[in-house]
Amino acid sequence: MLLDPDGRPTAAGALPPVEDLVRGYAGMVVARRFNEQASALVRQGRLAVYPSSSGQEACQVAAAHVLADGDWIFPTYRDTAAVVARGVDPVETLVLLKGDWHSGYDPYDRHVAPLTTPLATQLPHAAGVAHAARLRGEPTVVLALCGDGATSEGDFHEALNFAAVFRAPVVFLVQNNRYAISVPLSRQTAAPSLAHKGVGYGVPGEQVDGNDLAALLTVLSGAVARARAGEGPQLVEAHTYRMQAHTNADDATRYRSDEEVAAWVARDPLVRLEAYLRAEGALDDARAATIAADAEDVARRTRDGINEDVEPDPEDLFRHVYSRPTPQLVEQLAMVRDELARDALAAAPTRQEAGR
């Protein structure tokens, strides 16, 4: 911890440059407003579901900010704020949750893998991309995000083992928000910490306060640098908390108390960093208002984009399956085209009707 919950510097080490912290604060303000807007879109029926990362914004923003342009990030379903912080269009980030086609964005544009709903399945993919980059002699580092629940999945252990054996340059960031939906951490593992899980695979583990952006930037930057220098995979456990329910379909009051939530709200990562920046004179009301206005603009663009109805193209069902369509796909596409043509012909007015 570099900043205590009240935003006061601790004696744990030097803080990152203040402009990096201001940039991170701005990213967290955008992330918080983005979470609020997406949750509102669910209530309005424009999104089917939304897993909010409110309370985890420091982890989300730090993960995006410590990477170079050529690096990759592999997110989970709860990491939409990290995807936006990485530069992906907010609307494209959410269309998967709207029910639009594909993942909504081009993964190669910003080196952001598709949002992953099944727990931990993205972790072996991340290890594979990192291994491939190492074989090609590229300086690429992959940062793979997951939650505490994912560490109970086989994919997590397979990814760590593979990455360690082949010294793949991948950083595994576990956002330990204390619950796998409703299952508390105490029912998930008997290990002293999730960071300890790397020991059995020869992967160094480190813990960090996940609500302290300054500490996250320092720890994750170090992990990325070590991975890039050829020291193999790194495991970072960030202790944080999701302030909202698991999704809009979840009743969090059934498994956690109001007192527990209130205790973590008091450790809000935005409030902590804002207190420090104001005390340092790096943030005043005018700059804060500009940052808030930028966040509101992101919310507006997100709202307008998601509310726009898109007419689907049935041929997209066949266009993006294989780079070279199989004979079966060609045949099926022809059948669909024929059926659509028949429907269009049936719906067209006859000459007699058109003349009336």
Automatic annotation (TrEMBL):
A GO BP entry: branched-chain amino acid catabolic process
Every Dehydrogenase E1 component domain range: 28-295
Record GO terms (molecular function): magnesium ion binding; oxidoreductase activity, acting on the aldehyde or oxo group of donors, disulfide as acceptor
CDD domains according to UniProt: TPP_E1_PDC_ADC_BCADC (cd02000)
Oxidoreductase in keyword set: yes
InterPro entries in UniProt: Alpha-ketoacid_DH_E1_comp, DH_E1, PdhA/BkdA, THDP-binding
UniProt keyword terms in alphabetical order: Oxidoreductase, Pyruvate, Thiamine pyrophosphate
Superkingdom of the source species: Bacteria
Cofactor names: thiamine diphosphate
UniProt name for this protein: Pyruvate dehydrogenase E1 component alpha subunit
Species of the source: Promicromonospora thailandica
Lineage, highest ranks first: Bacteria, Bacillati, Actinomycetota, Actinomycetes, Micrococcales
